[in-house]
């Protein structure tokens, strides 16, 4: 795998002295999807803005495709597309023109076939002659994506692409991301929806208070930190957990017809065999058994709240 | 040089202008006509001639400058202020363009628009008075340089401004008085000697004097001074813009 984006000890202090990035280092592989998670004010947007040239880094280096973002800013920026967190568009401009404008800014001539392809992919073709102000919020967000794709970037930053977007459009967005990935585009997205990271990311990074707390392969992360639960459904409801099962630390659900056992996937012995034996010994009849893996969300909450401030 | 970026910015700015072409055309025609009715006819009937030129014709260069300067400032300041206000500036900042390209795009468009309006006023004026242009090349040079330099000033104002009020502050509080006191509607020689001296500190005097010279060969100050003044002014604006982009002042946090 080749590294397409390399961030080294990046720091950013704003004019008011606030240090929004406290030495972030991160390598991003070509073609991967990285999801950045983190609470409000963690520094996600600052990180993206600094890589894209909207804010100037206080110290540290960033290279995109081997090009330094400051000394070789033209080559570096040509490789990057940015979809900002806030919708910012010229209200009276036509959809087609605004995409052509973006292409021009990045040094490419107007290529009608290419612009048409982008607009069709984003279901904006029918709206190409409309002014931006005539579009719905979801369409505007897609216009931002179209503008970001106009110069065929190799690295795409999506800053909360699905904030305030309905379920349908969110699924659309995930499909667009999947397609871009197929075309070899590297994608870095921020999100507050953990199921989103879980659904589309290859790797997950967690930022908190300007520091990168962790970056890990999504599956490894879940396997490592995830707790699994077994739900043992009983044929006949019970009032209380039998004393003989007390050692397993079970919980009984509200209806009294299911026992929940939590275990660590990393442990040497998960204790499942003994549990099931003991349940049978206690004279309980099983109706069904289910396992459930804890989500990234739980991992994330543990990570961010578990750390002392 | 990223020429296609310059073209994209220029084209985008001009599109705004063409969307409201009728307005852009009608308002200078209307205001020029009003000036001729008020100043040319009402006041002019009492003044009649200034150094051998009818008063109506005498004020034409000043009128053109007045509109061109105001428009150049407002076009350029709004041009760059809007992206800041709407947030669309993120795209400029993240694009492979340098500050020279951004300035050429925005200032070029603002200057083009004000040049257009200047020409519209000139043509409108010919319906009211007899105009002669003794030095057409100098006239064109002064006009274009004024459009450019005041667009540069407007660009600075637009970057500096953090709200809409501030944008109109500079043209109204600084530029309008300087223009009205700069010999737009009178010759400096009509003033008492003390005021003649004070007036020489007003840079607009040099501008209007030079421009009027290109029409009628009449000048309040030597033409070389006029040329020097506008070149110094342009250079100062360029230097300030260079500094702005080097430091990212009010653009890049
Ligand atoms: N221009 C600025 N000047 C001063 N401080 C800023 C500026 N922009 C951001 N900050 C501060 O930097 C910190 C990080 O902000 P940032 O926008 O990067 O957070 P974020 O992770 O994107 O949050 P969110 O999830 O709410 O979008 C915040 O404390 C914010 O107040
Ligand atoms: Mg953010």
Report on the structure:
The complex is a heterodimer of chains A (309) and B (253). Chain A is an alpha/beta fold and 309 residues long. Chain A has two domains: 3-223, 3-Layer(aba) Sandwich (Rossmann fold), CATH 3.40.50.300; 226-299, 2-Layer Sandwich (Alpha-Beta Plaits), CATH 3.30.70. Chain A has ten helices and 14 strands. Chain A has helices at residues 44-52, 73-78, 95-105, 112-121, 137-149, 167-182, 194-200, 218-225, 272-281, 296-306, and strands at residues 3-13, 19-29, 33-37, 59-64, 67-68, 80-83, 155-159, 186-190, 203-208, 211-217, 227-234, 251-252, 258-264, 286-293. In chain A, strands 6-7-8-3-9-10 form a six-stranded mixed β-sheet, sandwiched between helices. Chain B has 253 residues and is mainly α. Chain B has one domain (3-247). Helices cover 77% and strands 2% of the residues of chain B. Chain B has helices at 3-19, 21-47, 55-58, 60-86, 89-94, 99-125, 136-160, 164-180, 193-199, 203-216, 223-247, and strands spanning 49-50, 53-54. A two-stranded antiparallel ribbon of chain B has the order 1-2. Chain B is globular, with a radius of gyration of 19 Å. Classes of the chains: A alpha/beta (309), B mainly alpha (253). Adenosine-5'-triphosphate binds next to helix 1 of chain A.
């Amino acid at each position: 795998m080749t590294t397409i984006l390399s961030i080294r000890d990046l720091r950013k202090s704003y004019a008011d002295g606030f240090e929004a990035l406290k030495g972030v280092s991160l390598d991003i592989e070509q073609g991967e999807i990285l999801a950045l998670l983190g609470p409000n004010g963690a520094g996600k947007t600052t990180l993206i803005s600094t890589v894209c040239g909207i804010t100037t880094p206080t110290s540290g280096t960033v290279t995109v495709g081997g090009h330094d973002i400051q000394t070789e800013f033209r080559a570096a920026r040509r490789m990057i597309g940015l979809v900002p967190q806030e919708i910012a568009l010229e209200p009276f401009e036509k959809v087609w023109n605004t995409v052509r404008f973006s292409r021009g800014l990045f040094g490419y001539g107007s290529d009608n076939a290419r612009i048409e392809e982008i607009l069709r992919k984003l279901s904006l073709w029918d709206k190409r002659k409309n002014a931006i102000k005539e579009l719905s919020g979801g369409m505007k967000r897609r216009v931002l994506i179209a503008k970001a794709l106009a110069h065929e970037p190799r690295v795409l930053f999506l800053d909360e692409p699905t904030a305030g977007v309905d379920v349908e459009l969110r699924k659309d967005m995930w499909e667009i991301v999947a397609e871009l990935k197929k075309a070899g585009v590297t994608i870095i997205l921020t999100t507050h929806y953990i199921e989103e990271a879980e659904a589309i990311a290859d790797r997950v990074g967690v930022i908190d208070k300007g520091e990168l707390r962790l970056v890990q392969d999504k599956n490894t992360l879940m396997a490592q930190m995830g707790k699994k639960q077994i739900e043992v459904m009983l044929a006949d409801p019970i009032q209380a957990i039998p004393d003989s099962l007390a050692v397993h630390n079970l919980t009984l659900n509200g209806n009294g017809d299911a026992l929940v056992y939590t275990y660590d996937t990393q442990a040497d012995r998960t204790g499942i065999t003994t549990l099931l034996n003991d349940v049978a010994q206690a004279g309980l009849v099983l109706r069904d058994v289910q396992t459930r893996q804890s989500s990234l969300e739980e991992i994330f909450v543990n990570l961010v709240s578990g750390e002392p401030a | 040089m990223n020429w296609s970026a310059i073209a994209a910015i220029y084209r985008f700015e001009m599109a705004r202008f063409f969307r409201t072409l009728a307005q852009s055309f009608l308002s200078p025609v209307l205001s020029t006509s009003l000036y001729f009715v008020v100043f040319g006819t009402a006041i002019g009937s009492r003044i009649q001639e200034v150094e051998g030129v009818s008063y109506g014709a005498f004020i034409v260069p000043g009128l053109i400058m007045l509109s061109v300067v105001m428009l150049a400032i407002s076009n350029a300041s709004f041009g760059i202020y809007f992206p800041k206000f709407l947030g669309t500036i993120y795209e400029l900042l993240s694009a492979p363009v340098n500050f020279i390209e951004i300035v050429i795009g925005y200032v070029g468009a603002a200057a083009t628009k004000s040049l257009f309006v200047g020409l519209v006023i000139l043509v409108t004026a010919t319906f009211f008075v007899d105009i002669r242009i003794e030095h057409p090349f100098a006239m064109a040079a002064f006009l274009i340089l004024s459009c450019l330099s005041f667009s540069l000033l407007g660009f600075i104002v637009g970057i500096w401004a953090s709200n809409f009020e501030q944008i109109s502050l500079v043209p109204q509080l600084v530029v309008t008085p300087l223009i009205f006191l700069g010999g737009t509607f009178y010759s400096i020689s009509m003033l008492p000697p003390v005021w003649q001296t004070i007036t020489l500190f007003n840079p607009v005097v040099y501008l209007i004097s030079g421009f009027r010279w290109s029409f009628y060969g009449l000048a309040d100050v030597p033409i070389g001074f006029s040329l020097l003044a506008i070149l110094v002014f342009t250079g100062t604006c360029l230097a300030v813009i260079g500094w702005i982009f080097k430091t990212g002042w009010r653009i890049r946090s």
